[in-house]
UniProtKB/TrEMBL annotation:
The protein's name: CoA transferase
MF (Gene Ontology): transferase activity
Enzyme nomenclature, EC number: 2.8.3.-
Superkingdom of origin: Bacteria
UniProt source species: Alterisphingorhabdus coralli
Length: 359
């Protein structure tokens, strides 16, 4: 029995934010019914495949029941109404206005089921001048300001490795749904949640964009303490063209490392403002790290209390011992899955459920 056992979720979302949200609910016992169009969730066709199924699809849709409905047909709409009649939660990720045209907007659904918690996920929200602008994660990151600091040394933005706007929206949606379910215990009524990817992403900049938030200039990576302007929060190339990072700015770590390198004379620079003032220290560390291979540095740092880490690719990351120790990446019946990141001491050891029960 999971924490969400007894909660019925009707999930009309596709791709990433909504399915990630409902996956987290399914992993903890909710009954999630994934309603797909007749052509199926496009993610089903996304490579790579394992055991005849998309790895992406399996890792976002395990434990859900799936049902194909044509919501433009009378039959499909009748079946959806049956599902919603006793549902606790509905999640949808269509462009604003689509659910209203189909007759499944919140007001209409709530008339049939006043206790339902209805969550819409879109790029820019259900109303306003940007509501109907098409966008996936990259465009939202561009318009939120985040892409401007996802840049290289020459200031050119690059495509982010993490779909942060998608993930932030999914997490905000999950939090909002759980809050609404708690509130429903007091009132008996559900609620509507308008989750926008941009709204969800923007608060994540508080630690880097303080100057802009306060009405001033935008931060620039090369002079910002968390974006590349600080020597002890930076990425360094090694002799074998791999990379390592120093990942904490506390002066105790700088003292330990510079002491071990016999360069405590540089310690005052570690306390200077990020940017030009720390440039000599950054230059020294670049030259130093270029003198050994990545693995040699891993060995060198093994007995030193410094926030250091090698930059790993995903193969190396998943093969680490502590990943196995925490059972974060598991193999069951010839398929590999990433384990839930939320676990409860009172619950039994997690094992991947069937990804398509009841299809």
């Amino acid at each position: 029995m999971g924490k969400l056992s007894g909660i019925k979720v009707v999930d009309l979302s596709l791709f990433l934010p909504g399915p990630m949200l409902t996956l987290m609910m399914a992993d903890h016992g909710a009954q999630v019914i994934k309603v797909e169009p007749p052509t199926g969730d496009p993610v089903r066709q996304m490579e790579p495949m394992e055991a005849g199924q998309s790895v992406w699809f399996r890792n976002l849709n395990r434990g859900k029941q799936t049902l194909s409905l044509d919501l433009k047909s009378d039959e499909g709409q009748q079946q959806l109404w049956q599902l919603l009649s006793d549902a606790d939660v509905m999640v949808e990720g269509f462009r604003p206005g689509v659910m209203t045209r189909l007759g499944f907007d919140y007001e209409t659904v709530a008339k049939h089921n006043p206790s339902i918690v209805y969550c819409s996920i879109s790029a820019f929200g259900q109303e306003g001048e940007m509501a109907h602008h098409p966008a996936h994660d990259l465009a939202v990151q561009a318009l939120s300001g985040f892409l401007s600091v996802n840049d290289g040394a020459d200031g050119t933005p690059v495509v982010p490795g993490v779909p942060s706007a998608d993930m932030a929206a999914g997490l905000n949606g999950l939090s909002g749904i759980l809050m609404a379910l708690l509130g429903r215990q007091q009132t008996g009524k559900g609620d509507y949640i308008d989750i926008a990817m941009l709204d969800s992403m923007l608060p994540w900049c508080a630690h880097i964009a303080g100057s802009a938030i306060a009405g001033g200039d935008s931060p620039r990576s090369q002079s910002q303490r968390s974006l590349g302007g600080a020597a002890f929060y930076n990425v360094y190339k090694t002799a074998d063209d791999k990379h390592v990072v120093l990942g904490a700015r506390e002066i105790k770590f700088a003292r330990t490392l510079l002491g071990a390198l016999d360069r405590l004379d540089l310690l005052p620079l570690a306390e200077m403002e990020a940017g030009e003032a720390q440039a000599p220290l950054i230059a020294f560390l670049r030259e130093t790290f270029a003198s050994k291979s990545r693995d040699q540095w891993v060995e060198w740092f093994a007995d030193k209390d410094v926030a250091f880490a090698p930059v790993l690719d995903f193969r190396e990351a998943l093969d680490q011992n502590f990943i196995a120790e925490r059972e974060l990446w598991v193999e069951v019946d010839g398929t590999h899955q990433l384990a839930p990141s939320i676990r409860f001491a009172s619950e039994e050891k997690w094992s991947p459920p069937s990804p398509e029960a009841g299809q």
